[in-house]
Amino acid sequence: MGWTLQFEDGTLVVRGADVQDLPSGFVWDKRIEAPRGPGYLYSAVVYKAIGDKIPFVDEARSWEKQLDMTHRVQREARDYQREAVQSWLDHQRRGLVVLPTGSGKSFVAELCMAQTKRATMIIAPTLDLVGQWYDRMRLAFSTEVGILGGGFHDIQDITVSTYDSAYLHLPKYGDRFAMLIYDEVHHLPAQASLDAAKLSMAPFRLGLTATLEREDGRERDPGRSTDLPEG
């Protein structure tokens, strides 16, 4: 028998599998007689099934395989921006971009999105930054842009959210986005933000910051690297 993948409130259920056959992090849920784990293990389960030639039905993912989105910005990338994008691609589209303020981190994110063409949630720490990202995305791409936070609850293929709203709503929308972009990613080691990251199935993740270090030293927290490995 094969596996059936389902998303439930920030968790991934794999029917037809045994816990020992799945990546670390799954436990047996007696209520449903199936293994259950955090949503972020989705890509590991898919790679496991493909690698072991286990047939599976994916009922968990609700994003389109590829969006019809055009990057409308006619601008030549600098060498270090191209290198950042290529490094991210080489590391299974997961990693951190640490560049000084004003060096074009947001443009790197646009280039990564243009390469991936999947539903994307951009998560920023303040409403001002959410507004800036919203305006930028509307100019950059030929697709609808939504906002989550500050009184807005509009979910589109590109959606910009505050960290707080992502924590509140990713249990519901964790199957909706294939890519997460964390602006000011040094905020991610906060426990609530880490918990939210684990609720999303998004296989593609990008963190942006000018200053990775935190006063509490948690920028090297193993819990963070589990959700957003460095590339």
Please identify, by name, the CATH architecture of the largest domain. Answer: 3-Layer(aba) Sandwich
Structure annotation, total helices:
7
| Radius of gyration of CA atoms, rounded to a whole number | 18 Å
Provide the succession of SSEs.
Answer: EEEEHEHEHEHEEEHEHEH
CATH class of the largest domain: Alpha Beta
Major β-sheet strand ordering: 6-12-11-7-10-8-9
The amount of beta strand, in percent, is 15-25%
Query: What is the assigned CATH homologous superfamily of the largest domain?
Result: P-loop containing nucleotide triphosphate hydrolases
Helicity range of the residues? 25-40%
Provide mean pLDDT, rounded.
90
First-residue to last-residue Cα separation: 36 Å
- Structural class of the secondary elements? alpha/beta
Number of β-strand runs: 12
Shape: globular
Let me know the largest β-sheet: 7 strands, mixed
What can you see in these coordinates?
There is one protein chain. This protein is of the alpha/beta class. It has 2 domains: 3-58, MutS, DNA mismatch repair protein, domain I (3-Layer(aba) Sandwich); 79-227, P-loop containing nucleotide triphosphate hydrolases (Rossmann fold), CATH 3.40.50.300. Helix content is 32%, strand content 24%. It contains 7 helices and 12 strands. Helix 2 (79-90) packs across helix 3 and helix 5 runs parallel beside helix 6 (191-199). The longest helix has 14 residues, at 127-140. The model is unreliable at 222-231 (pLDDT under 50).
